Protein 1
Amino acid sequence: MDLVPALEEPLKQPLKSVLGPATAKVMAEHLGLHTLGDLLHHYPRRYEERGQLTHLADLPLDEHVTVVAQVADARLHSFASAKAPRGKGQRLEVTITDGSGRLQLVFFGHGVHKPHKELLPGTRAMFAGKVSVFNRRLQLAHPAYELLGGEGDGAEAAETWAGALIPLYPATAKLESWKIGKAVQTVLPSAQEATDPLPPSLREGRGLVSLPEALLKIHRPHTKADIADARARLKWDEAFVLQVALARRRHADAGLPAVARRPRPDGLLTAFDDRLPFTLTEGQRKVSAEIFDDLATEHPMHRLLQGEVGSGKTLVALRAMLAVVDAGGQAAMLAPTEVLAQQHHRSITEMMGDLAEGGMLGGTEHATKVVLLTGSMGAAARRQALLDLVTGEAGIVIGTHALIEDKVQFHDLGLVVVDEQHRFGVEQRDALRGKGKQPPHLLVMTATPIPRTVAMTVFGDLETSVLDQLPAGRSPIASHVVPAADKPHFLARAWERVREEAENGHQAYVVCPRIGDEEDTKKPSGKSPEDEAEKRPPLAVLDVAAQLAGGPLKGLKVEVLHGRMHPDDKDAVMRRFAAGETDVLVATTVIEVGVNVPNATVMVIMDADRFGVSQLHQLRGRVGRGSAPGLCLLVTEMPEATPARQRLTAVAATLDGFELSRIDLEQRREGDVLGQAQSGARTSLRVLAVIEDEDLIAEAREEATAVVTADPELTSLPGLRTALDALLDEEREQYLEKG
């Protein structure tokens, strides 16, 4: 994160004979470590004390683990096999223990000789390998190991040795933790050359150790206090440098010019409000006031609108768009899919009535035109839509990424509303913003509740508004886990419930993880029920729809909807479902966002364990949108004690999206909130935990804002500038902009 020239030396050259080329290659390819500085910032995941053992009792299946344990028993067996027909095959079974549990290690063939000599009962060692299941017991097959021998004689030496802290690093199958540890020890002297990114006043004011000292203590701690000092300091680096990046973005955005958009007192917005058949919730009024205040300034609004599924975000966004049209501008709403763009267009024109018929017979004097623009539109309709935009005839346009194409020109773009932000890349958002004569105001909507600290970290360049009450008339949703493997009759009952709802005039969704016309994935032979449930291909829309229509839901009208259908076909299916002509819609997550059918009361999610917590919460929000109560059934084959099953139980237990988003983050042990995939291993958060370190992030944001306000170019802080350059490599910069 400091990465000054000395620490920018690549690991791959034979520099000072630090690492062999093979090790450097594995580090680059598998861990994203390319320079000396990268390796110094590859921190231990945890530490083992030689005198105490890890918990074998809770090892995760199918993951690479490193454990420190003692050999309890070792037996050599002979067996006959195709390769060794005369009973000359050899298998070494070693049982290790740590006081909390026992684990079996197995070695085969020629691989048995060395461990047979070395792994004698009583021997203590570090073992690394992938946890698998054989005969319903956990085991490590052919683990790598490193013996932990005592150094020196006498009780004192033994005690020092037993109390030493062994760093365990995030490792890969190709490079064990202790090999990474040895490489780190080789480069550790270079830590002295690390330039400190924190301003001295901040470091001294908070009693933090220097960066070289923190690096030394995290990799070679003598006591647990050393680790605590190092982590406290390195967390500040991560939080502060990131918040400085975001503060600089806010500072730059605040300097941009924009046209202030104030609605006319008797314009389109007033006419719309007068026709609303209900009153706005307290939350909708408060959030609208925040948005209107922003729109009235001569700097672009950058606001994130978080709202639970069904909290009325679309209405708030529509009122903002009408205010901009009133002020002579145009508003564009960008949706992630055609299904959603069409749905928004339909619901907005319905809400506006004749106010959406500008220039047409029957339109009122305040009316404007609301156009739809998607990639699959016919040429004539598309030409007309483009014409309406360039002349200003259309005040509101709703579309997919087709809005971003070069051909699309606006008369005066004043507001961009982005729905479900996480699905849009920065290039797309910027391309649309570039279509205004001056930067337009920006409103980002998300139905995925985000804890406050994550909002500060991921969406730190946006002001945040939260809608947390549901409008009147919304019904409660009951959620239940259906354990299909343990209790098949529960699944049979689920289909009966769907049938009962259909007979009472309601409709149902059945969601599957896969479409089903892909090439069949290989069917592995699992060794246990957990394995089987995990390895079986996910259930598919086409298969499930056929089974239901011919079986438990025979006689009901069942249709399918998925992303590979032609847009016209998708729209036709959605229209039939919305009109109540279809009883059951079997779909992929294409229905996750924005689909609004108040008559749908049940949702059955197949293989629910294959979906994330926030996705399940989003999907569930598609039912209970009318006056009848909603029911969501989470079907899974996962055994009761598995983390996947616990996750589903958590989703069933609460409808509070903010609570679920915390659970989701706490459960994701790895994974950087800034998106590991988007930002490469080198820059992901290593020690900062967004939920745990809530206060620290808030403090870092304040400190960063003060530093950037006083010195936007950071001229007096070269160490901080260097750290920013390392953090904001191209990919991360883009990810922050998507923020």
Protein 2
Amino acid sequence: MKNVMSGSAGNVFQAGAVRDVHFHSSPREALAPFQLPPVPRFFVSRKAELAALRPGELVVLSGPGGVGKTSLAVRWLQDRRAAFPDGQLYVDLGAHAPAGPVAPEEALEGFLHALGVTEIPPQLSRRAALFRTVTARRRLSVLLDNAVSAAQVRPLLPTSGTVVVTSRWRLSPLGLDGARFVDVAPMGIDESVELLDSVVGQGRLAREPDAAQEVARLCGGLPIALSVVGARLSTRPWRTFEREVVELRDDRLPALDESASVRSVLDLSYVELPARQARLYRLCAWLPGSTFDVSVAAAMIEEPEYDVEDALEDLVEKSLLSEAGDDRFRFHDLLRVHARGKTDPDRTAAVRRAVEWYLARAVEADLVVAPDRHRAGPAYRTARRDAYPSPEEAMEWLAGERENLVRAVEVAPADLRWQLCEPLWALFQHHHLYSDWISTYRLGVAAAGECGEPLAQARLRTRLALALINTGVVDEAVAELEAVLPLNDPISRSTALTLLGRVSEPERALRLYREALALRTRDRGRGQARRRIGEALTALGRYAEAIAELELAESLLSDPAEQARARTFLARACRLAGDRARAQALLDSALDGLSRSPVHLADVHLELAELADDPRPHRLAALACYDDETDPQAVRIQALLDQDRGAAGVIPQRREG
């Protein structure tokens, strides 16, 4: 079997039997990412810690949970946004997340996508090296929040820029990487009183200075506890600091661990919540992902959105939730732990309702992105087909909810798990999100088998196999595809045969493509299969047969982009057969049809380069089709240009990426 990763990266989704999403985007300059959370609403003092932070360094902020490490880092970085014109990256590394810490390779994938990289290798070492390459000479900052270890942090360090790490541990091994360590201790009494005053306001502290100081002491100097108490007082003008002192003393836990103050304060706040707010607090803590919006919260508790929105905003006012952007919310990790400690008999059913909500929304988006694709899931039968005005907006929703959708797959019961994998196909395929693609589809394949859904399992197997092929895991891919072949489903079987052809030598590939063709009944499927047959015949040097197959393929295809793609391969066969004039005419006509598919347009320019006396202009045009200069095909084109430079003694100008 050949190494399929050695060919054009642009051919990742060219298999006619599997590439059924017609969603393209024109190349554009990637916007500088500014991913930091909002600036904390209440932030006081911390003068010594702020003074210890300096641009251009690796700094580790360590301290107990709830002490305000993230708020300190966000405030400092947001205040200096102008110093980082190339972007501010952020990731919550999830040291205390219910799903466990974030793997470095997952964080790197997010960073690289944010920086405009589209082809991301699967291996951690290669991702880290690529990240260092992309960040060289860039003026950016990186906030690595809630880190669990130095090993988790090291691959995420850019070549240049400012890095701030927050952790409950000191992460001393990062000293070898030049880190400076800043301990973030609980606030003193004066600072704590200042924070309380900023939250409560109206001069109330001046009326009870001694009681206010005692409240500050009982909160242990932890900003999260102080904010919750302050929020409780600010919404109750009649409530006194003395009453807070009495209730905190009665409820305070004897253990002196870092979260004792928080638990004490939260228990008092929780028992005073109205029923709807208390239910939201208990159940939303079990939502998949780190942020959520009003709609899924409303679905979870089965109440109207306008009531739920008001209740969520009240929880924000009480500092029991944080804002995570427009109409989005998040739990502090200590608050999530506290909320999950509150028993709710409806929890399992509520999580299922949340997963069903994500499934319904994802299906609606998928139907707009790819309206004509075959589906197995029952959710598609009754779903709206006009929920989004355009494929671009539908894809934008899928991309924005990516983390929640992936986490939903992980927590979903088996009957929903395999169904939720289906609408993620377009997202994974378009953005090449191989880590999530492979992990979720492995779960989906197992779930479909558990539920006795052989057709769905076969479809998921072929899509899993495509991701495995594109990441070089060929043996596992072949095993998945061979498991599909005995099934009496023409679509799954023809897809499996086509993918097996992709990892086979030309003679075997030709046999497999012809077998796949025999299973195709629709013109489009037959046209794609014949295009593959034409490619294999070209590779075998059987140019006359290849030309006949590719001409027939073009006649069967109705989509202009697919027709242009077939003409590109037809032009190659004509050129190799000696008919350069026809090859030139075919390529000229293919240019318009592929104007919105830059990667495929690059292939046209590479073919034109083979016909030109001076190939450099066409190779430069091909290179310009790639936003990501590290894309394997872009690297190959650059190598050809370097050869041209050596031969001609000139230096071609690269497109700035």
